[in-house]
Specification:
alpha+beta; four-stranded antiparallel beta sheet
């Protein structure tokens, strides 16, 4: 997952014609005090981390003076919010809010179309409102070939009970958010709250954007914004995960990699969508402790597989490695295995003592078996070896000391 930090999300939203608050970045208490002074003394300090629920964690604070900003910044900068250490703050002008709305765009996999969500009650409690009164959270599926029309956006605002100029302003905000959603290959775009101010203006007080990480090659400027605060959705990236990101970036058009490091001791590179998930469940049932999850899309990816093998084998404390997939239909098995064999050779381990199990089936399996035979000790298995067999065998060899 590629989630932009709030200051970058607000900047992109502003480019698409949606009003946003004045703001400034701060990485120290003194910078926070200076930012508050430039914003008129009163400001909202927010931890810059790629997760939600910052307010409930105490990482969002309204301050009334530069001195208070300095003190609160010192507190927030020392926090860890949902596993993410706070290294920077966003100081935002304090808005005089009359009403709060919720506005979001996501992708509905059921209808295979963008889905616009709008609620006339926004803010921190929007999830509770949606749970208690689901009728208040309105939905509008969008035909991606037609886009979001101003009439449809205005109709949604009126369905939510808005009228007059504020309904028109909300519809324009919906259009701006949809333009951003499409232009930047977003998986999710959320404004909460979309605030009606006492002076009648409508301002996006906060914005969160998640971008499809497989589309980042089309947006190098966004890729540059995904800095050290970026994570995998629930925690910061580990050094190994960062290394894998670099491997994947070698060629963004071929063999897209999905990888997560875990705390186990079996390098678990079982790929192929449902096959990978079922394998993970099976290895856990067998008492195995996966050190990672892995998937890669089809293509000419020998070099990526070579580097991936070396990267996974660099993880301390491994007791074994399994590389497996379901029957290959879109890529030759020997193409994948060629990179694996190169990596295993370069790693230079004694595979008679460190168990490695390679299981693939499909076109080129015979040549793949010949390539694996070049690495003494590596165990090859084909289509007659089931998912259950793979998991049983690697657990047996890694933990049971059994020999082939």
């Amino acid at each position: 997952m590629a989630r932009l930090l709030e200051h970058d999300s607000l900047e992109l939203l502003e480019r698409h014609g949606v009003a946003v608050p004045a703001r400034a970045l701060a990485s120290s208490p003194e910078e926070a005090a200076s930012a508050a002074a430039r914003l008129g003394g009163r400001a909202v300090l927010k931890a810059l981390v790629p997760v939600g629920k910052r307010g409930k964690a105490g990482a969002v604070k309204l301050v009334s003076s530069p001195g208070e900003a300095r003190a609160e910044a010192a507190r927030i900068l020392g926090m860890t919010v949902r596993r993410f250490p706070v290294r920077r703050l966003l100081a935002v002008e304090a808005l005089a809010i009359r009403r709060e709305f919720f506005l979001s765009l996501t992708f509905d996999w059921r209808t295979k179309s963008p889905l616009l969500l709008f609620c006339a009650e926004g803010g921190m409690e929007v999830e509770e409102i949606a749970a208690r009164r689901p009728d208040r959270l309105l939905e509008l599926p969008i035909d991606i070939t037609q886009g979001l029309s101003p009439a449809d956006a205005l109709g949604l605002a009126r369905r939510a009970g808005l009228a007059g100029e504020i309904a028109g302003a909300a519809a324009r905000a919906m259009g701006g958010l949809y333009g951003l959603f499409r232009a930047r290959d977003c998986r999710m775009a959320e404004v909460n709250p979309l605030a009606e101010l006492e002076d009648g203006r409508l301002v996006a007080a906060s914005c969160a954007l998640e971008v499809d990480d497989q589309a980042l090659f089309r947006h190098p400027d966004l890729e540059e914004k995904l800095g050290e605060e970026q994570g995998n959705g629930w925690r910061p990236l580990t050094p190994l995960e960062k290394k894998v990101r670099e491997i994947d970036a070698l060629d963004p058009h071929v063999g897209a990699i999905r990888f997560s490091e875990m705390e186990g001791d079996i390098g678990f590179m079982a790929s192929g969508g449902g096959y990978g998930l079922a394998s993970l469940e099976e290895i856990l049932r067998r008492g195995g402790r996966p050190a990672c999850t892995f998937d890669i899309t089809p293509g000419r990816y020998e070099e990526k597989m070579r580097r991936m093998v070396l990267a996974v084998l660099s993880k301390p404390g491994l007791k074994g490695l399994v590389l497996a997939a379901n029957v290959s239909n879109f890529a030759r098995v020997d193409v994948r295995v060629a990179g694996i064999v190169q990596g295993l050779k370069e790693a230079g381990r004694d595979y008679t003592k460190f168990p490695v199990l390679v299981r693939y089936a499909g076109p080129g399996a015979g040549e793949a078996r010949r390539l694996v035979a070049e690495v003494p000790g590596v165990e090859w298995r084909g289509e007659d070896f089931s998912l259950e067999d793979v998991c049983r065998r690697i657990a047996e060899r890694a933990y049971g000391g059994g020999e082939r």
